[in-house]
Amino acid sequence: MLLDEEFPRVLVVSHTPFSRVSGTAMTLSNLFSGWPKDRLGQVHTGNITPSTEVCENFFHFPPRDHYLPIQYYSMRMLGWNGQTPLQQSRPIAAVHAAAESRATVAKVYAQLRASADLSPIRVPPALIDWMRDFRPDVVYSMLGSVRLTRITALAARTCDVPVVPHFTDDWPATLHANGELFGRATRSVQDTIARLIRLAPLGMVISQPMADEYARRYGIPFSAFANCVDETFFAAPRGAANRQGTTELVYVGALHLNRWESLRDIGAALDTLAEAGLPVRLTIHAPEKDLAQYARHFAHLERVRLGPSLASDEVPAALRSADVLVHIESFDQEIRRYTRYSVSTKIPQYLASGRPIFGYGPAEVASMNHIQEANAGVIVGTNDAAALARGLTDLCRDAALRERLARNGTDFARQEHAKDSVAARFAATLRSAARSGSAASEAAPGQLA
To answer: Could you list the residue ranges that cross the membrane (predicted)?
Structure first.
């Protein structure tokens, strides 16, 4: 192991490869910004073309290769195309769509997801050879499922190096937590994570509250790493974009996890404010898939505009077009438990953009606390229409308040989220993990625990 190197050789295991196609992939790319390309390798399971901006050494481990033949061909006969994630196959996607409105169907979908996640994994010899040839000093993964966690542990044992898990949502406490597969799914989540933690000298999470909870839960130290931002986002002027006329609110992000419901609440409140003489408008920029699925919920709202989906390089300009940036989370009990420790990918971008933030979601969620810690926005932490209208009115009427909050956010982002400083701390943490020594072998290389 090259202990004196500034950058250890890191094997990244993930579903989505280095790219800008999602918040997770973007965070991954930003954290490894500036890493020598010859010291990065990535195993990815998703059928997504990787970007070579950060890494050039990839091993694609697609579904056809890691499902057993009988599983693979059975699922193909059920309508799966063999390339997209199993959850996106026609039959399962149809069940998923119906599950949003029917509790019984939701239970069926949960069983299907659990069955796919816990099913046996086939490991081709080519993957074992590729990982050994890369000779990593440490394995890193954002995990997210039983299946990916088992593949990550396999990588660490195969290469006899430690692993650094990075948790960005509290999925270990919520995945398959409703008795799927007669309780076997929940036990599998906990057992699989426990095995991985035994290979980890330290871990990473996305917020400090999560670091405190996970250190208590798993008995190893955790460091907080959220998304980081470059100068592209700090280029905006500090003041409000539109001092007169209509106050422009902008939301950039996904609509799943019932976030569309919170945005719909804001849209309804804006209609009420407009009737009272306060000119306001909300523009939503979401992925095309989400717009197609949820657009109907906004059709009756006069003060809501569905803008185009944005490429990553279009986001800074969209943020600068706003007077106020909107962040929302769902008040659904199960979802708020899943997101309680999460800081959304876009929060650092929002803070750096020189615009105040309006946050609407459970007060205890880490993303809302993060905005409050930065003193960069107005938070409405209860699902209450009157409180929502008051918060929006206060922020939209007071230009001086907006400018003060925007300035606070930019200063906080400089201190906490500037890419160069965060990436340097990230590299130092991985270097510390690499120096801890080899993984504790629990099974022979090539076997999955």
So the answer is: none
Cα separation of 326 and 442, whole Å? 47
190/77 same-domain check:
no
CA 305 and chain centroid, separation: 25
Tokens describing residue 171: 């999925």
Domain that holds residue 395: 231-416
The model's pLDDT over 331-386, given as tens digits with 9 standing for 90+, comes to: 999 899 999 999 998 999 999 999 999 999 999 999 999 999 999 999 999 999 99
Instruction: Specify if 3 maps to a domain.
Output: no
Cα(176)–Cα(174) distance, rounded to whole angstroms?
6
- pLDDT tens-digit series, residues 35-46: 999 999 999 998
From 15, 134, 139, select the one nearest 85 (Cα to Cα): 15
Are 40 and 8 a contacting pair, CB within 8 Å? no
Which residue, 210, 217, 438, 253, is CA-closest to 357? 253
Residue 253: give its domain's CATH number.
3.40.50.2000
pLDDT-derived band at 174, boundaries 50, 70, 90? confident
DSSP label at 295? G
* Average pLDDT over the chain, rounded to an integer: 87
Placement of tokens 């937590």 in the chain: 177
Residue 235 has pLDDT above 70, yes or no: no
**DSSP string covering 56-99, please?**
--EEE--HHHHB-HHHHHHHHHTT--SSS-GGGSHHHHHHHHHH
Whole-Å CA distances, 36 to 27, 41, 234, 392, 421: 17, 11, 25, 46, 17
Q: Is 292 helix (H, G, I), strand (E, B) or coil?
A: helix
- Classify each residue of 95-123 as buried b or exposed e, where b means 16 or more C-beta atoms within 10 Å of its C-beta: bbeebeeeeebbeebbbbbbebbbeebeb
Phi, psi angles (nearest 5°) of residue 139: -110, 140
Q: How many domains does the chain have?
A: 3
Same domain for 220 and 254: no
Residue type at position 267 = G
Residue among 268, 32, 265 nearest 138 (CA): 32
Using CA atoms, how far residue 265 sits from 282, 367, 374, 397, in Å, is 12, 19, 25, 19
Residues 88 and 151 in one domain: no
What separation in angstroms does the CA of 239 have from each of 111, 129, 236, 252, 317? 50, 55, 9, 20, 15
110 plus 134 within the same structural domain: no
Same domain, 196 and 303: no
Strands (E), 112-154: 138-141
